[in-house]
Specification:
571 residues, 4 domains, 27% strand, mainly beta, four-stranded mixed sheet, 27 strands
Length: 571
């Protein structure tokens, strides 16, 4: 019986009179020949559902709240009970033993759980969720095997509580008799010592090859439609630590001795292509604005923890170019050496050794024309030429003077992985600046010989003229006014031992200054600077603190200059 609400819904309608309302959301007009239950603001029906004449389904229906309802989910549960004994779970508990549960996730999905989910304290999380026990298919299919590729069903054995035990697909190619093994940490391993299969260190793994010749050998003929241009690709993505996309380590099994052969951590070999690269390294920090500390295409480090005959970070050898363009290293851009650069210079490595003529080199150097310039970075951006003002020589000009220091170079066209030209071929002249070192040394030696000869002539002249200015040595003057012809400067005595006198005549009033400089033009100081009236003047010059050598005394009067040479001798 009921006190309020519509009804009855079916031939037999059982209503809980203790509730104030009768749930009607789950009712459908086809609920006629059966039993209806209403109570606790919910509804259920057991009976027949007619479709067409003599076409009837027997249904068990309940309503109305799925799991995403704010009123709490309404489940269908199958419970078995036995005599109550105070147990907390199982058939003899107050709740009873749940055998199956239907769990509506929402208005469109229903999960089926097998097992005691009440004792488990949760609901089925998958479309079919077996709480415990084993699943058996008594009659296995006997259809013929399908053509590859196909997949098999597997059970997730991870420790993820949401994924463990879930049935998933796996490609059949991942299975085999001992080819690969899934380790407890989900790594996949093969041909390792200690596995349950008869593999050991003598067995290899081959991908695309039946009889591999290395621990791992990958071969591909490149004829596939999806060939990317690479046989193997390694990608590392990590925000927590550094690492290597490809890492190679080679060493003996012993730490206290070395093998009599050679080991290479990473070896690269290329052949029979228009552009052949043994090892190629490219580093890119991504889009503009992405922060990067260092962007390095190839890095090489060699450190010997004990005594070693030689350690080399990067080693390059090149030979065999028909046009002489053999380069063990090529840099498009500036290079930097953090330490000294050494070259072959041993006498035993050289033949046809001859001394350079100092006088000839000095005369040849005078044919060179140093320049200031800037590189054409806009037309040749791919060369990474330095920006700003530069100082140097022009190869075409040097070629006519020192042809052995200039070389014709060909930078070949650069292509992408598909063979498309991205940078054209470039021919230019390059110069060996280091080759100028012996030439400059020879020219310097010739200059020093000339200076020494002139010094001997000066000493001889000074001695012959009893300390007066050497014969043939004239005053240097600079001025337009004829009245300045009487401007003069005398040094007496000269050569100088400790103290000498500078005598000078001022023909007209003006600003006077006396200064001294070294033979290479470096100023030593101002002796006198004042406004003077016409007349004769003198200055006592103390040279005791000066080293022996040649000095120049400059007398300046309102822009007119007179220069005299003073020779300091040792006592």
């Amino acid at each position: 019986m009921w006190t309020t609400g519509p009804g009855p819904f079916s031939l037999l309608h059982l209503a809980d009179a203790t509730t104030d309302n009768m749930q009607v959301y789950g009712y459908r007009p086809w609920m006629h020949n059966g039993v209806t239950f209403t109570g606790n603001a919910d509804q259920a029906y057991m009976g027949q559902k007619y479709s067409t004449l003599d076409n009837t389904d027997v249904v068990i229906q309940w309503s109305d709240n799925p799991a995403d309802s704010p009123w709490g989910v309404d489940r269908m549960r199958f419970i078995f009970t036995n005599g109550y004994n105070g147990s907390t779970t199982g058939a003899r508990s107050m709740e009873g033993l749940e055998g199956m549960r239907l769990y509506p996730k929402n208005d469109n999905e229903m999960n089926v759980g097998i097992g005691d989910f009440y004792a488990y304290g949760g609901d089925p999380t998958e479309r079919l969720h077996v709480r415990d026990g084993r699943v058996r298919i008594q009659q296995l299919p006997d259809d013929p095997e399908t053509e590859l590729p196909y997949k098999v069903m597997v059970v997730d054995d991870s420790n993820d509580p949401l994924e463990r035990g879930v049935v998933k697909w796996k490609n059949i190619s991942g299975f085999g008799d001992c080819t690969w093994r899934l380790q407890p940490n989900n790594d996949v391993a093969s041909v390792y010592n200690g596995s349950t299969c008869p593999w050991n260190y003598d067995n290899f793994v081959g991908v695309g090859v039946q009889y591999p010749k290395a621990k791992l050998q990958v071969e591909y003929d490149g004829s596939g439609p999806n060939f990317t241009g690479a046989v193997t690709i390694s990608t590392l993505k990590s925000t927590n630590q550094g690492g290597w996309g490809v890492a190679g380590f080679a060493r003996t099994p012993f730490s206290t001795q070395f093998a009599s052969t050679s080991f290479y951590g990473v070896g690269g070999f290329g052949s029979n292509a228009k552009y052949t690269y043994g090892v190629s390294g490219i580093a890119n920090n991504g889009a503009p604005g992405i922060m990067a500390q260092d962007v390095i295409g190839v890095t090489g480090t060699a450190i010997a923890s004990e005594n070693a005959v030689r350690t080399v970070g990067v080693y390059g050898v090149a030979s065999g170019a028909s046009n002489g363009n053999d380069w063990a290293a090529w840099f498009d851009g500036e290079g930097f050496l953090g330490a000294l650069s050494w070259n072959y210079s041993d006498e035993n490595l050289k033949i046809d050794v001859e001394n350079l003529s100092s006088s000839e080199m000095a005369a040849t150097l005078m044919q060179l024309h140093p320049k200031s310039y800037s590189f054409n970075t806009e037309e040749y951006p791919y060369l990474n030429l330095p920006a700003g003002a530069q100082f140097g020589l022009i190869s075409q000009e040097v070629d006519s003077v020192f042809p052995n220091l200039v070389k014709d170079v060909v930078r070949p066209e650069q292509v992408d992985s598909l063979g498309n030209v991205i940078e054209p071929e470039l021919q230019f002249k390059a110069m060996n600046y280091q080759g100028f070192i012996p030439v400059l040394i020879a020219g310097f030696q010739a200059q020093q010989q000339q200076i020494a000869a002139m010094q001997q002539q000066l000493d001889a002249c000074c001695a012959a003229n009893q300390g007066l200015a050497p014969q043939g040595y004239h005053e240097q003057r600079d001025g337009q006014d004829g009245n300045l012809q009487e401007q003069r400067l005398l040094i007496f005595p000269n050569p100088v031992a400790d103290l000498t006198t500078l005598e000078y005549y001022v023909p007209q009033a003006g600003k006077v200054s006396l200064s001294v400089s070294t033979s290479d033009g470096k100023p030593l100081g101002m002796l006198r600077e004042e406004q003077s009236e016409p007349g004769a003047y003198s200055y006592a010059w103390n040279t005791t603190k000066l080293a022996a050598g040649t000095y120049f005394c400059t007398y300046l009067l309102d822009g007119a200059v007179v220069v005299k040479r003073a020779v300091k001798v040792s006592r």
